[in-house]
Amino acid sequence: MEKPDVVLITKADCHLCGAARDAVGRVTAELGLEWREQLVDNQPELREQYAEEIPVVLVNGIQRDFWKIDETRLARVLRQAMAQ
Known about the structure:
Blueprint: E1 6-10, H1 17-31, E2 36-39, H2 44-50, E3 56-59, E4 62-66, H3 71-83
Parallel strand pairs: 1-2
Antiparallel strand pairs: 1-3, 3-4
């Protein structure tokens, strides 16, 4: 069983990003997973792609949530990814 790649895309001065960090941290800790954060501030391609949706959660490269992270949905997606 391969662990899913969980990425939280954020930007500086983002009032929703702190709550997203907390949500992703809680869910991944509960499932024994790691996650990483990518800032779009110095990455023009990411900034353009996700401009109006930040923060964004990607699981295995697929966008799964944005703005306010739904912890129940994220846990379900991660459990499904872990089962594959």
